[in-house]
From TrEMBL:
Organism of provenance: Nocardia halotolerans
Domain Putative zinc-finger: 3-36
Record-given protein name: Mycothiol system anti-sigma-R factor
Length: 85
């Protein structure tokens, strides 16, 4: 799993929205990747801050879905497949 994919799914993990297999795969990667665990820590702190500052308010219905869509649109993952000569 590459770092781009891990960082794209960090919020799913923080929100408890990924399945156990995905959680384990993300955790396994972060256990061995310092930049990703650092990014995870920053995201975790940001989520805590947002929760403290905005925790009592409820967003309009549909906002969460629109935000998730925009986040996924902003992430570009490029895969290169090797062919045998």
């Amino acid at each position: 799993m590459d770092c781009t994919a891990v960082l794209a799914d960090v919020w799913l993990m923080l929100d408890g929205e990924c399945d156990q297999a995905t959680r384990e795969r993300l955790q396994e990667h972060m256990d061995h990747c310092s930049p990703c665990i650092e990014a995870y820590g920053i995201e975790e702190k940001l989520k805590g801050l947002l929760n403290r500052k905005c925790g009592g308010e409820h967003a309009p219905e549909g906002l969460r879905d629109r935000l998730k869509l925009e986040i996924h649109r902003s992430i570009t993952v490029t895969r290169v497949e090797r062919t045998e000569d």
